[in-house]
Hints:
The protein has 262 residues and is an alpha/beta fold. Helix 8 (194-204) links the parallel strand 4 (184-189) and strand 5 (208-216). It has a seven-stranded mixed β-sheet, sandwiched between helices. 34% of the residues lie in helices and 16% in strands.
Amino acid sequence: xxxxxxxxxxxxxxxxxxxxxxxxxxxxxxxxxxxxxxxxxxxxxxxxxxxxxxxxxxxxxxxxxxxxxxxxxxxxxxxxxxxxxxxxxxxxxxxxxxxxxxxxxxxxxxxxxxxxxxxxxxxxxxxxxxxxxxxxxxxxxxxxxxxxxxxxxxxxxxxxxxxxxxxxxxxxxxxxxxxxxxxxxxxxxxxxxxxxxxxxxxxxxxxxxxxxxxxxxxxxxxxxxxxxxxxxxxxxxxxxxxxxxxxxxxxxxxxxxxxxxx
Length: 262
Ligand SMILES: C[S@@+](CC[C@H](N)C(=O)[O-])C[C@H]1O[C@@H](n2cnc3c(N)ncnc32)[C@H](O)[C@@H]1O
């Protein structure tokens, strides 16, 4: 369980900044600032925040943000459904928290669904075994077990997100069928393995609003090359083009990919 008093905060004072610099390699257990200017220590996470901000911008454009007094009234009267987002692969919830914080900062009415086993990666399939690097630790050990549904719920409500964020525990193939059939503006797929990528894409791709964004954390992953394989197989007959984002110097796993739904 994550204890509220032990939670690192988004504070921006000097000691927080020096603490961050001590984090030599980003681990998902560390919360990171969701506001620019970004600290290079969080380089791997910045593309997600930028893609999420782009999706919020596309949502606001579709809403027709006010240019004058009457336009403002029109936009209120025509108020559409909230910004809908999902994360497939939540682990301890740090990227979910950062994205939700951006939406709140921008005053956007949003809902976020977070899906995970909250119990670590599932067993490797034959395709995963085929693509996994020979030395990969997850061949012998279940990764991402240091989390729990209760702990993440508690952490998110400590940050004031009990209303906007819903978590569903279980394998995607079990939790996805329980989702309400709605359209999405943003989906972050961060689940490492082959079949989970396909399951998420099969569900969310047709439910993306035009201008909505699907973000892939693992397209350029060195440890999980099966992610790229799955994404390429799924996208090969789709009209959208993948775009690639990097913050800072090149390096393993630093570049991320996304597409904007047509
Ligand atoms: C890299 S972690 C996610 C990290 C998280 N997005 C963050 O930034 O902190 C990958 C997660 O995907 C989840 N996952 C992978 N395959 C899954 C499946 N088939 N069903 C549910 N969760 C899955 C794992 O449990 C793990 O927590």
